[in-house]
Amino acid sequence: MSIIANMKKQENGSFEGKLKTATLNLHLKLQPIGDAEANDNKPDFRAKIGSFEAGAGWNKISDNQNPYISVQIDAPEFPNPIYANLVQKDDQYILIWSRQN
């Protein structure tokens, strides 16, 4: 597992931060989608890199009853999609990546 972004929660419910890896340094924003319904497969957030819509996020609850956002990000220049979880740790939000098997 790796922390690939430190995000800040905005007043409008969105999250913003820098997505940083060995080859990426991008501004990432997760914008809430107002019409997403509970028990639906629709995403709760749009993931944007600049003005490019690059993925989505879904509200989830862990086995320990902790809320998090499951995020999928993809772009034509990525060899594979990025799957990560946005979690709150103390007073900050971190995006944690782990390789899919």
- CA-atom Rg in angstroms: 13 Å
What class do helices, strands and sheet pairing give?
mainly beta
Strand order of the largest sheet: 1-2-3-4-5-6-7-8
Overall pLDDT metric: 90
Strand element count? 8
Contiguous uncertain segments of 5+ residues:
none
What oligomeric assembly is this protein in?
single chain
Q: In DSSP terms, counting alpha (H) and pi (I) runs of 4 or more, how many helices?
A: 0
Provide a descriptive summary of the structure in words.
This protein is an all-beta fold and 101 residues long. It has one domain (2-97). The chain contains no helices and eight strands. It has strands at residues 2-9, 15-20, 25-32, 45-49, 52-61, 67-73, 82-89, 92-97. Strands 1-2-3-4-5-6-7-8 form an eight-stranded antiparallel β-barrel. A hairpin with a 2-residue loop joins β7 (82-89) and β8. The two termini are 13 Å apart. The mean pLDDT is 90.
Produce a short descriptive summary.
With 101 residues, the protein is mostly beta strands.
State the main characteristics.
single chain; 101 residues; mainly beta; 8-stranded antiparallel barrel; 8 strands; 0% helix; 57% strand; globular
Any chance you could write out the topology, listing elements then pairs?
Layout: E1 2-9, E2 15-20, E3 25-32, E4 45-49, E5 52-61, E6 67-73, E7 82-89, E8 92-97
Antiparallel strand pairs: 1-2, 1-8, 2-3, 3-4, 4-5, 5-6, 6-7, 7-8
